[in-house]
Amino acid sequence: MNPDSPSEIRSLLEGRGLALKKRWGQNFLVNRAARERLLTLLEPAPGDTAWEIGPGLGAMTAALLSAAGAVVAFEVDRGLCRYLEETLGSAPAFTLVPGDFLQTWAPTLSERGQPARVLGNLPYRSASLMIAAMIEGGVRPARMVFTVQKELAERMGSAPGRKSYSSFSVLCQACFRVAGRGDLQPGNFYPAPDVISSVVEMSPLPDAPTGAALLELSRLTRGLFASRRKTIRNNVHEPEVLEALAAEGIDPAERAEQVPPEAFVRLARRVSRAATGS
Fold this sequence. Notes:
This protein has about 280 residues and is α/β, with parallel strands linked by helices. It has twelve helices and nine strands. Helix 5 (about 100-110) packs parallel to helix 6 and helix 6 (about 125-135) packs across helix 8.
């Protein structure tokens, strides 16, 4: 099957009685140059374990197997899982994890340890949940490369003061260097989605928050961004947080969208230290 041919993909799916489901964001990347570009950005090495989220029909998976030491592929579609087992299952370095990624990534991390690389053509409806779950769960590969909806990519790398700046922006930028690597028009995919996609590269920051400080960062920012029109003072009800704001020089009369990620990190660290008495 030619992974660049929509007609051959369609024939294969019809022949196996497989119907793509929109809720799973099943849009196969049929541009060979774009796939090669993603692998170049990912920079897999022979000793690496790479995670692939949403391998689909395995076009990227086969290339990953040639470049990395091992590939762990997460696929929710049982019909596609059967196809992947038939075509790639004999490869010793290939492991298929069936089911919803949001339910399977944590047990896989516990069993197999940290991946060195993560690659994913992520479903538009759950991409932010997947990325946030990995960051909050301590997944720290040397490189992650994702294809996501353009609007989500803008949120991930948004600067303070912009409408797209959110708690998700803070989480991503507090733990990773986020870099946009260009757009992919709908015609690069089969079926063609209704939106433009963007490629995002993420590399871990050496001083990123971990443990209690990371949990506190998520809790604080979600609360502070919940009512964007309110000032920080009007969104905060804990005296210890107000004290930490003053200690870090963050003006409670500002809105959360005006505060940069590094200030939120300092705030979360101070609050978590106060909570543990350290």
